Amino acid sequence: GCPNESESHAESAVNIALNMILAASLIRTPKGDSVQIRAGVHSGPVVAGVVGLTMPRYCLFGKTVQIANLMESSGEPDKTQISEQTRKLLKASDYIFEKRPETIQHAGEEITTYFVRSSAADKDRKAKQTSALQKLVKDVQTDADFTLAA
Predict the structure, then answer these.
(1) Nearest by Cα to 74 from 109, 108, 106
(2) Residue 140 Cα distances to 9, 12, 27, 36, 105, angstroms
């Protein structure tokens, strides 16, 4: 949805988050430990712009960004946490939602959250993504200090 509005922005953001977690799970550190990340997604209005002269960056600002940050920081390793607002924008048939027992507080507002993962019907897509990610990681691995999970 940024910089151009998109009806499928929530789906795109959640799919990117799920793919990032999948990609990270394929990597092992030099000590053999798995790489774990958390992801958080919230939907809403933002202010965006380019910041900086020497090293310009496209940045997003506002309450939506702060809540997305809370989704990530209060999540769990290898999981994508989303807000109720984002969940309402997703097709229930494409995802499995696990409602979190606790809510998150932001500026006096209680936010219901969910862990989300791809639906069981999405196994074929996940297998194709895993194969593509393994190839990508293998190509990058020659210049990096990590290994690919078996």
Answers:
(1) 106
(2) 29, 25, 11, 18, 40
3-state helix, strand, coil in the chain (%, to 5): 40, 25, 35
E-assigned strand segments in the chain? 27-28, 39-41, 47-51, 57-61, 80-83, 95-99, 104-106, 109-111, 113-118, 147-148
Helix (H, G, I), strand (E, B) or coil at 65: helix
Contact predicate 86/42, CB 8 Å:
yes
Instruction: Identify the CA nearest to 65 among candidates 88, 83, 42.
Output: 42
pLDDT tens-digit readout, 83-138: 999 999 999 888 999 999 999 999 999 999 999 998 766 667 677 777 777 777 67
